[in-house]
Amino acid sequence: MDFALNDDQRMMVEAARRLNEKFVEPLLASHHRDKALPKSAVLMLLEKAADLGLTSARIPEKDGGAGMGLLDYGLLVEQLPPTVMLIVQPHEATTTRIHFGGSPEQRERFVPDLMAGRRIACTGSTEPDVGSDPRGIKTTATPDGNHVVLNGRKQWISNATVCDVMNVTCRIPEGSGYRMARVLVDRAESPFEANEVDMLGLRQSPLGEVLFDGCRVPQANVCPDNGDTAKLLTITWLANRPTVGLMAVHLAQRAFELAREYAGVRKQFGKAIGAYQLIQHDLAEIETAVVTSRLACYNALAALDRGERANGLSAMAKRYAVDACDRAIQLAMRIHGGMGLSRELGLEQMARDVRTLAIPDGTPGILSLIQGREITGFDGFRPA
Ligand SMILES: Cc1cc2nc3c(=O)[nH]c(=O)nc-3n(C[C@H](O)[C@H](O)[C@H](O)COP(=O)(O)OP(=O)(O)OC[C@H]3O[C@@H](n4cnc5c(N)ncnc54)[C@H](O)[C@@H]3O)c2cc1C
Question: Which pLDDT score, from 0 to 100, does residue 233 have?
Fold first, then answer.
């Protein structure tokens, strides 16, 4: 077992940090910090993300993707602000779903532009009445000649307002019932309404609600029924969770650096506050949260890379990291006194951003149920 990064990983991490410093942070700073980025800025970000392999991380090299290991992917995600990664990751995860779950024609038509960051993708599963339990999805795709007609609403969808392609989970009538299906809605040929939703944090990431009101989509865009669902599940949901945890680590690491610096320069009662034991204790707590969260996420990703199912580890990593980093950021704010609450410093934004990370890819409650099921073998979702 070796906890050190190898040379390739160090170079990747350095490249991502350089991109962040020279391009991403200036781009974010040049836009309103409480408003979703415009589509032009999202496309610029995706193009740069494509250079790092972040738009095709989980697509094999032989198919034109970056073919990264999941741990390497996580290392890159950790270096960039979550407000950007919550644009890039839904785009990349959707591209991966189309690559592995689409027909050859769908792959050929959609995937190259998405991998290159020339078009924007998202996945619409959540609905006003359907969140953690996607089996209740109500959006319908009713066949009509060479088309299906989509009716329904989607909610809290990352990239919805700026996307070109939405991978929509819906129900198609079959026999006397329905079957679950995925339909690729190309906005240029099948327009739909999408409106931005104002959220607590990650406010520069576009996030929207969508209305499908008789939206006609060619039958050719209905994904085949024979996708490798288990593989899709493993490489998207299971890997998304620890990488969302690493987004929280990105924030808590920055909060730690700010708090450490402030503790060294802020003087009260004649001494730097960092000389007082209570402040040192808070700093020790913050650093512990950052390191343990990072290790839990790396551990889950490394297990997935080894081919383990790692369902419990992946759920544990996200839930633990987001909670621990949330608390770490609160402590960093406290070390800053009144300054910690100022908008100028940015810690209050980190506090809002980390809270927002708790919900996508599994709420804390759902993640503990997943882990609990792995531990006990009992399904706590639907207790008798
Ligand atoms: C920033 C952000 C980005 C998102 N991006 C996307 C996206 O791109 N695409 C998409 O489809 N969705 C997206 N979502 C939606 C997200 O996936 C859902 O919000 C999430 O699945 C939870 O669903 P819900 O909000 O309806 O909560 P609910 O499922 O209604 O849950 C409410 C509460 O009940 C708890 N709960 C639910 N079931 C149980 C149970 N059996 N036992 C105990 N407790 C339970 C939950 O833990 C939670 O605390 C995003 C959300 C956010 C905040």
Answer: 66
Is the CB of 366 inside a 6 Å radius of any atom of ligand 1? Answer: yes
What's the gap in Å between 185 CA and the centre of ligand 1? 23
Which residue has its alpha carbon closest to ligand 1 atom 47? 365
State the Cα–Cα distance between residues 26 and 384, nearest whole angstrom. 53
- Nearest C-alpha to atom 6 of ligand 1 is from which residue? 157
CATH code, 137: 2.40.110.10
The pLDDT score that the predictor gives to residue 227 is: 55
Judge whether 168 lies within some domain: yes
Taking CA atoms only, the protein residue closest to ligand 1 atom 37 is 132
What residues contact 277, with CB distance under 8 A and at least 6 apart? none
Which residue owns the Cα nearest ligand 1 atom 38?
132
pLDDT tens across 32-58, in order? Answer: 999 999 999 999 999 999 999 999 999
Backbone phi, then psi, for 6, in 5-degree steps? -85, 175
pLDDT score, position 228 = 62
C-alpha 328 – ligand 1 centre gap (Å): 24
Q: Is residue 382 a part of any domain in this protein?
A: no
- Which ligand 1 atom lies nearest to the CA of residue 133? 29
What's residue 381's pLDDT? 86
pLDDT of residue 229: 61
The pLDDT, as a whole number, for residue 230 is 60
| Helices 7-19, 39-52: inter-axial angle, 10-degree rounding | 160
Low-confidence residues of the chain: pLDDT under 70: 226-231, 233-234
Pair of tokens at residue 383: 């207790």
- Residue 1 belongs to some domain of the structure: no
> Are 127 and 98 part of one and the same domain?
no
H-run or E-run covering 185 = strand 177-186
